[in-house]
Design goal:
The chain has 420 residues and is mostly helical. It is 71% helix and 1% strand. The chain is built from 18 helices and two strands. It has a two-stranded antiparallel sheet. It holds the Pfam family Sulfate_transp.
């Protein structure tokens, strides 16, 4: 734990930390449920991940403000792994990613984050936003029984083929939730992400009162959410599984490192503090080693919740610990009620989140440059959307390196001509 955060710590600081933790916890619940479903998992795994990751990263991380948990950046990657290998193997991949993160920390990879091209970061984040948004169209339209595919274009094709099965009640519920979120965000901006929670609750209550049994809920699709914390377990590991899952675990580790260190950097800029990148990567590594033991998904620092934490006056890791304990209490005492949440109510939440993480202003700005950065951006974006994140980042890095070498060669040629 960052002990520096407790220098001159007062009762007033404790009060702000606890209140901030509760606010972030309220926001984390619908996001945890939504990200888990979008990743091809059961809703409760999102809560397990929020609790484990939130607690451990607050204690072990390198930033006093960092809030860890499920994040939208992982959705397409995790869904691809689940569809291809199954959820049990995702746990193994997450565990391996945790080990890789600790190796990254020992090798001081965290210091290299500042050299990672911005065009690639913006490209894959925008691509992820498109995938998350499109993945929620079926829930928005009430198309809950369509097949999920690993590739974007196949999912869009499936939606169009089943468009005649749309449910009007699901659309009404989703629109109501979206209207509440946008209205509260517009006229009461200080409540931030709590608008997600209020939108889900209000729209689910309206749908259950006016048209019960007409739309799908978490309970009707996934069964009742258990109000207990799981006993630690770990799936069977073989050399064959390790070799097959190694590329996926490497991608997860890269994503966790990028997401967490970028979020920590944003927290530094907002608070004039300084995070410890080595400690942050080690903390995230331990999180992703422990999380699979409790059926949890891969997790990382999450920027929206971290920013909310700071804006609500947090000053120490106590806020992150409080947020995790709050979600645990909700799981233990209120989990059965979450089963009544309409799936159509979760769709607008993830759509709004995807809109916020799309980096649309930076995307447009780089595109207007009409430079090599624009080309890298578009290649990363298009390959992320139409193939996968691994291809997107890999191709973006290769193209970026090629353009850099070409520029150096041109500069050397110019210097040689001047010298001649």
């Amino acid at each position: 734990m960052n002990l520096e955060a407790f220098r001159d710590y007062s009762l007033n600081n404790l009060k702000k930390d606890v209140l901030s933790g509760i606010v972030v916890g309220i926001i984390a619940i619908p996001l945890g449920l939504g990200f888990a479903i979008a990743s091809g998992s059961t809703p409760v795994t999102g809560l397990y991940t929020t609790i484990v990751a939130g607690l451990l990263i607050a204690i072990l991380g390198g930033s006093r403000f960092q809030i860890g948990g499920p994040t939208g950046a992982f959705v397409p990657v995790l869904l691809g792994i689940v569809l291809q290998f199954g959820y049990e193997n995702l746990l193994i991949a997450g565990f391996m990613a945790g080990i890789l993160l600790i190796i990254f920390a020992i090798c001081k990879v965290g210091s290299l984050i500042k050299f990672f091209p911005k065009s690639i970061i913006i490209g894959f984040q925008s691509g992820i936003a498109v995938i998350i948004f499109s993945s929620q169209i079926p829930n928005f339209l009430g198309l809950h029984k369509i097949e999920k595919f690993e590739y974007f274009h196949l999912n869009i094709k499936e939606i169009f083929e089943k468009i005649h099965l749309v449910g009007i009640y699901s659309i009404i519920t989703a629109l109501l939730c979206l209207l509440i979120i946008l209205t509260l965000s517009r006229f009461f901006p200080k409540i931030g992400g709590i608008s997600y929670f209020l939108g889900i609750i209000a729209s689910s209550l309206v749908s259950s009162f006016f048209f019960p049994d007409q739309i799908e809920t978490i309970g009707s699709i996934y069964g009742q959410i258990p109000n207990q914390f799981p006993i630690p377990h770990f799936p069977e590991v073989t050399i064959e599984k390790i070799l097959v899952l190694l590329p996926s675990s490497f991608v997860i580790a890269i994503l966790v490192g990028l997401q967490s260190l970028l979020t920590a950097r944003v927290a530094d800029e907002m608070t004039s503090s300084k995070h410890n990148s080595k400690k942050e990567l080690i903390g995230q590594g331990i999180v992703n080693i422990v999380s699979p033991l409790f059926y949890g998904m891969p997790a990382a620092g999450e920027i929206a919740r971290t920013v909310t934490n700071i804006k609500n006056g947090a000053s120490s890791p106590i806020a992150g610990i409080t947020h995790a304990l709050f979600v645990l209490l909700v799981l233990l005492f209120l989990a059965p009620y979450a089963s009544h949440v309409a799936l159509a109510s979760l769709a607008p939440v993830l759509m709004v989140v995807s809109w916020h993480i799309s980096k649309k202003e930076q995307f447009a700005s780089i595109l207007k440059e009409r430079s090599g950065h624009s080309l890298v951006l578009m290649m990363t974006f298009m390959l992320t959307v139409f193939t996968n994140l691994t291809m997107g980042i890999g191709a973006g890095l290769c193209l970026s390196a090629l353009l850099f070498l070409m520029k150096r060669m041109k500069d050397n040629q110019n210097q040689f001509k001047k010298a001649s």
